[in-house]
Amino acid sequence: MSLSEVLLETSGVVVRFGGNTAVSDVGIDVRAGAVTGLIGPNGAGKTTLYNCITGMQRPNAGRIVFDGRDITRLSPGARARMGMARTFQRLELFLSLSVRDNVRVAGDIVRANTRRRVDVEAETDRVLELTGLTDIAHLDVSDIPTGRARVVEVARALMTQPRLLLLDEPASGQTEQETELFAQLLQGLADDGLAVCLVEHDLPLVMRLCSRIHVLDHGVLIASGTPAEVQASPAVVEAYIGAEVVA
Amino acid sequence: MTLFMTFTVLGLVLGAVYAIAASGLVLTYNTSGIFNFAHGAQAMIGAFLYYQLQAVWGVPTIVSVALMLLVVGPLMGFLLHRFVMGGLRDTAEVTKIVVTVAILLGFVALSQWAWDPQEARMSKMFFGADSYVTVRGVTIRYHEIICLLAAAGIAVGLRLLFTRSRMGVLMRATVDDPDLLRLNGHDPERVAGLAWALGSTLAVLAGILITPVAGGALEANALTLLVIDAFAAALFGRLRSIPRTFVGAMVLGLTSTYLVAYAPSEWTWVTNLRDALPMIVLFVVLLVLPQDRLRGAAVRTRERYEVPTVRRAAVWAVVMVVATVAFRQLIDDSSVGTLILGLSFAIIALSLTVLTGYAGELNLAPVSFGAIATIVAFHSGISGTGLAARMNLVGLVAGVLAAAVTGALVALPALRLRGLYLALATLAFGGFVSSMVLRETQTRSWFGHDFAIFPNGNLIVSPLAVGPLDFADQNTFLYSAAAVFAVLGVGVVALRNSGYGRRLAAMKDSPAAAAMLGQRLVRLKLSVFMVSTAIAGLGGIFMSMALTSVTSEHFVYVLSLSLVMLTVVGGIGYVSGALFGGLLAGGGFTLVVGTFNELSIEHPVHAETFGILSHSFLVMTALVGIGVAQNPSGNFFEIFHGQRTLARAPEVRYTALAVTVLLYLLAYAEVIGTWTFGILVVVLWQALPALGRALRPDRLLSQDELAARAATPLELLGVDTPYPDRLGERLDRELGLPARHRQVTPVQSVVIAADHSSRPEEGVRHVTV
What we know:
The complex is a heterodimer.
Chain A: E1 6-17, E2 20-26, E3 29-31, E4 34-39, H1 46-54, E5 61-66, E6 69-70, H2 76-81, E7 84-86, H3 99-114, H4 120-130, H5 146-158, E8 164-168, H6 176-191, E9 195-199, H7 203-209, E10 212-217, E11 220-225, H8 227-232, H9 234-241, H10 243-246
Parallel strand pairs in A: 4-9, 4-10, 7-8, 8-9
Antiparallel strand pairs in A: 1-2, 1-3, 1-5, 5-6, 10-11
Chain B: H1 2-32, H2 39-56, H3 61-83, H4 93-114, E1 132-135, E2 138-141, H5 142-164, H6 166-176, H7 178-183, H8 188-213, H9 220-228, H10 230-236, H11 242-262, H12 270-288, H13 310-328, H14 333-358, H15 366-381, E3 382-383, E4 390-391, H16 393-415, H17 419-435, E5 444-446, E6 449-451, E7 459-460, E8 465-466, E9 469-470, H18 474-496, H19 499-509, H20 511-516, H21 521-547, E10 549-550, H22 557-570, H23 575-602, H24 607-626, H25 635-645, H26 650-668, H27 674-695, H28 697-700, H29 703-709, E11 723-724, H30 725-735, H31 739-756, E12 764-765
């Protein structure tokens, strides 16, 4: 699995907000057919890095390469059409549509962009089934609990048949049972060749799913490696628990 | 050189007044997040009140000014904030804009009520026009010096307020995060209220200062528009920066006066250009504004629209055409024209259903697109002469296409930006059409062709003739208009139910998420804007044919604004909302005001009462528009919601239908009048949900409501309290009841909870011991 192709690579990414450097010289990679973790304490710059990768934030410096192509200056839409999809930490659901239509509209968008005769209906049913949303498909999306709403965002992203899936805290708000199902779903997707990047605070989940983990702290990449390597890294322990305790 | 200096001074003075007006706008926008389209109307009211105090009642100038700036201005702002703007939290941008538009219309109606527009009034300069100083041959009036000083003072004052004072910092914080401000022990409402008071005062000051500079005539519509010109200046500062707003205002003022001073005299259109200049500048600024960053911003607003199926829409379309035919039998021939006009406006309003209801964008000048369509149809599609002249299909299609293409041109610069900017672009377009296009009444050479765009300021638009359909016959026209609306209505619903419609909804709800799924936002917005303006163009041509002869008066901005407002009142997400808005804007006003006029002629003793009623009707309409803040989904949402509850008691509906038919027959036999029929039918159907509940409580009320109605025995009061499931489970456990019972409990609770429309886990049961 470690030999699998690198689909996304950032190098030297810097983002400054005024005098505050949110992301500083960060280089990470995400590989196809595996789940890559991106962790770090609150305010470490994870979401900002996501925004750079997806084009919602233009970095002050650095390059983002997706599938061998420099995409640093492409619009979010263009990146999505290249096969990138994401979910949002603060849910961005289409609140006037039902759960089913939230998923279906992603297929509508793909169909309008590619002019391919995709069977949106059948694909919607398949994705709803896969993500376990069939039972609530008819509900108004504002009436479902947060944990399931996060799955709706994943289902919506899957409708675009992405090659890279960026998840921003997908397990927060999920019950233990939901998280278990969700972990299985992600593992299945990765096994099918999808590149999954996971920003998540549920560390047991991250350690279990990810083959590689990048750790950010105060905008700086402090460790990259397998779960075991990362857990052994003093810098990571310090960032999470604090220097005094270690000493 | 003297000429140059003179015009420089004039330009700076105009710029100074624009700056005062624009800074008030920026202030309120930045503290409440509401772009105040009524800012110009507030200035207008201020100018009128000052005139009343100073010129009519003879209050000394200094006292009048003090009263206006220290009492009237702040009070107006405070009241607006307290009773209107404060209620606009958690509403969509469209709702916010429409509420301020309603205030604008209300102020215009009020001013025309209080000050008869037929009477000429002149506002004088401070110290009169004859008090001036001469500097190197350049005459500067005292009034002009006051304008410049006031602007300079305000510039410095606002700068200090925002950077140095605690209140200024709080004002800036209010927009960024009112909740955080509240947590820090401040009251964001109080801060926003103060900002509104200050903003209104600046509007009033601008109104008082600008009227004499602009010639002195007090005319409600013109004055309102004059301060709307300041919008362009505010955009210079991207609605945020006060210094840049001042620079923009000066550039605007100077360009405007230099244009008049130095344009060659054979350019007869230059005065028109000067009038249109702020709107053109506004447009150019939109072109150069940087693109907004895509942010996640999906928040649940209070608007709710339900989407009917195409089948249901088709049924209602048939009902609507049948009702039109039936209603036609009740009214006399002279009223048919009004009804056609109403339906034409309803078609224009349908363009808003698509654009605003489905895509969340706003067009504040739909009628101006109708004007473009009319002009193109007039030039390309009239065949025959005199009474035999007819519009052909080519003209109709050309007009509709022209409206769509114009729509694309207008929308393009604003599409990269937020919804507010598209609204401003359309407003600018409306201003441009009124001051440039519709004033092109003379024949002039266009690329070698002699041609008048709007010949003699009056177009005779002949009725359409297609195959056997000849709109010269009023009945044919009426039924065709109804059929066109019905077909378009079904088409619009079908559009919403298609993949395209879902993409529109996605874009409206969360542009960020839609873009991240690969949606090209600009392309989608452009296409929907073109569809929308095409529909507006069609409606515009119908409107012009209904009027037969149209002048620039028929395309004024107030009309567009009224239509937008009334459609939102009806419910902008619904085809029925468009019908309501269109009928009222196109026919209802004429009809009601006309009826009151007739009544006052018939009963001269009560003429004054009828006059008051007629005026208050106009003001009331604006109040209803302001009421959108309370009910942002529009009236039809409530009505549909109410009617749907009747589904369990169809006999109530059938009875109401029978009563309606009976009333119709009575009206047809002229036992009751048409007005009586109309009012009774509306009241009947409005009250039906309530009537149904009173008559058939067993069918229409839920278990809980019935239980609440049934009197609880006194000794059980207090025992009959809801308690959560887990208490029930504990009870079962302790009483040793079988597990089966326990398993059933959650299911029961779900069923009951569904009635409470709350979550299963929060389900509660009522248990009467």
